Amino acid sequence: MAEVTMEKLVSLCKRRGFVYQSSEIYGGLSGAWDYGPLGVELKNNIKDYWWKEMTRLHDNIVGLDAAIMMHPDVWKASGHVDNFSDPMVDCKVCKARFRADQIDLNKPCPNCGSKESFTEPRQFNLMFSTHLGPVSGDDSNIIYLRPETAQGIFANFKNVVQTSRVKIPFGIAQVGKAFRNEITTKNFIFRTVEFEQMEMQFFVKPGEDEKWFEYWKESRINYYDKLGIRKDKLRFHRHGENELAHYAKDAFDIEFEFPMGWQELEGIHSRTDFDLSRHAEFSGKDLTYLDDQTRERFIPYVIETSAGLTRSVLMVLSDAYEEETLEGGDVRTVMHFHPELAPVTVAVLPLVKKDGIADLAKDIEKELRGDFSTFYDQSGAIGRRYRRMDEIGTPYCVTIDYQTKDDKTVTLRYRDSMEQIRVPIAELTSVIRKANKEYRRG
Ligand code: ATP
Fold this sequence. Notes:
This protein is about 30% helix and about 25% strand. The protein contains 13 helices and 23 strands. It has a seven-stranded mixed β-sheet. The longest helix is centred in the N-terminal third of the chain and has 20 residues. Adenosine-5'-triphosphate binds next to strand 10, strand 13, strand 16 and helix 9.
């Protein structure tokens, strides 16, 4: 089986309308990407799947959608103003910039190959800043684009406790944009300056944090299995002493084997009472929680699950891609998306256009719209139409022919096995629903 490479993914994404370079007609903007008609569907499906998994399937997790811009003191309290920086070095010859912890400083420059040395590492804060209101020039109205969604959750902890009926242990989940002025952006949508995160902060009683940390580690790795991601492509990486963030008691990354190697996909962090204590200190507000059973008052400990949404898109694309050699030597490119994630679930394809067959196909496609994301295509040989659908990961193709007119049945073709069965139109929705539920990658 041919290896999936980043070049192949980038090319397929561009060709089929998943991901485009930002501002491409102006030569592009480095570290920013746009999601095209299929990409936005895939991204939304991943987001919806996460949201359902993390909120609706629990009775103790609620959602939030906080503003991207927050009071600047939030970022002082969180430690981002002082600590959210990476060490940066410049090549003395070509002036290219690198993260000092991502290259070997004793080797030649990865950009120009020069053996001249690099500058001394200096800390570079990753937060984008701007000014609120028309006055600028000093730092009095400085404001940041959030570098993570988590702080919106901590800042609203009191609001949520007071206005919803949550009781500890409980979680608050949020999906949204985050911005980081990354020193080096590469590997397509893996590391970008604007990206989306899916985060959940789970508030627990101090002393119960280790139990919940284990629970969330287990739960989050199982989630990827449900999503249809191959198990041997995922692993845990525990942070060593020198990797742990200043607030963390313990931390594990879930890593995925991307085309460029094993890299972080999601972090599970035991954050103690660091965040709420700091916000209580900086805001002067009481952020303790009162347990109305025991009458105990305490600042909860926090277990965080922090996944990248746009990075998950890259994971799903990488995991799904296959160049399959068929009998006879033909090669088909097929994206094995889980049916819940596929941008198009069902394609409806008339075998002939005449004698009312195309109209019948259009009617069937309209019928299916209420239940699935559909696509109608009547142009080209059927084999080519199947290939087009395989390449965008459409799990089911329905073909309409003369027999459909006679006996009200259609041909249903499965993407992974390419098996074809005859199904009555009346049963199409339930057959597809069942196949979705039972889906295992073929
Ligand atoms: P790194 O050390 O690689 O810069 P991090 O450990 O600082 O990343 P976190 O702050 O833990 O990352 O962010 C949580 C998640 O958000 C990551 O696991 C990743 O999926 C996503 N993420 C972080 N930075 C970026 C980025 N620049 N582009 C895309 N996704 C990102």
